[in-house]
Amino acid sequence: MPTKKLSVVVTRRLPDAVQSRMAELFDVTLRDTDTPMSRDALAAAMQGADVLVPTITDAIDAALLAQAGPRLKLIANYGAGVDHIDTGTARQRGILVSNTPGVLTDDTADMTMALMLSVLRRIPEGMRIAQSDDWTGWAPTAMLGGRIAGRRLGILGMGRIGQAVARRARAFGMQIHYHNRKRLRAEIEEPLGATYWDSLDQMVARMDVISVNCPHTPSTFHLMNARRLKLMKPDAVIVNTSRGEVIDENALTRMLRSGEIAGAGLDVFERGHEINPRLKALSNVILLPHMGSATVEGRLEMGEKVLINIKTFADGHRPPDLVVPGQL
Ligand SMILES: O=CC(=O)O
């Protein structure tokens, strides 16, 4: 006798191939528009479904989880970061949470390098000049940026993505430093040629570039607060492809305006897509619309991870990418 298919609700439009496979495997409700679901629609979805597939734009907080129906057993997030989900409350309510780690590591690390290169070598500014009618040709003192090789890079958060950034930056000739909750094992640290700093303050004060690569958790919120940002050298720059909440965006904006920090490359912001207008007005920043994992390949592989997590659960096993609250 065929077993009943799981009822799965997907909150955002996903790549076609992912949606088709979902429809083959599960009793799936897909979205054909690219706008996030309203809170009411999310609550309704959580009342009737066995599995919810949300993304970063869905705030699955305790109040929403309190409205979840008894069938909801798995939240299979499409994305690695789960700071938009109250994983502790989900756990208390017996709802599993999974994510999509690993498949966006290279893409996000590439984007981190792209931001560093763009800020230090002034790429968007150069493009605007080349596209304008004002460019009069090569000049010895025009568009001078900073050399990447030899610069000290301080990586804040040395997980998968931090390590992938370290490998790339080393190939560019940068000196690699890092701060992490735990020091890496020697067999991982040594090939990266990375220097560990137990004190984040001391590392921040000595770096030419800071790269934020830790997840956003209660303990990393505003880790780069005004006091720490002030420790940065005035010619240093900061890049962030993780989550905006790790940096105090207002303090960063003030210091970029006053020249206390030389530049920033940001793919993420403290209030989602609502970027501080003062930040938008600055010429020493590069702002991207949260596209670190936005490759065709990455988004397909994220979908595959979601499918594997749900299918494994449907087959009665533990989803491979379960998120354990407090272990991020
Ligand atoms: O930011 C993207 C993700 O967390 O997957």
Automatic annotation (TrEMBL):
Domain D-isomer specific 2-hydroxyacid dehydrogenase NAD-binding: 113-292
Organism of provenance: Loktanella fryxellensis
GO molecular function: glyoxylate reductase (NADPH) activity; hydroxypyruvate reductase [NAD(P)H] activity; NAD binding
Regions crossing the membrane: none
Entry keyword annotation includes Oxidoreductase: yes
CDD domains with a match to the protein in the record: GDH
Entry-linked Pfam families: 2-Hacid_dh (PF00389), 2-Hacid_dh_C (PF02826)
SUPFAM superfamilies: Formate/glycerate dehydrogenase catalytic domain-like, NAD(P)-binding Rossmann-fold domains
Keywords: NAD, Oxidoreductase
Cross-referenced InterPro entries: D-isomer_2-hydroxyacid_DH (IPR050223), D-isomer_2_OHA_DH_cat_dom (IPR006139), D-isomer_DH_CS (IPR029753), D-isomer_DH_CS1 (IPR029752), D-isomer_DH_NAD-bd (IPR006140), NAD(P)-bd_dom_sf (IPR036291)
Similarity comment: family membership: Belongs to the D-isomer specific 2-hydroxyacid dehydrogenase family.
Protein name, per record: Glyoxylate reductase
GO cellular component, one term: cytosol
Gene3D superfamilies: NAD(P)-binding Rossmann-like Domain
Domain D-isomer specific 2-hydroxyacid dehydrogenase catalytic, first and last residues per copy: 8-323
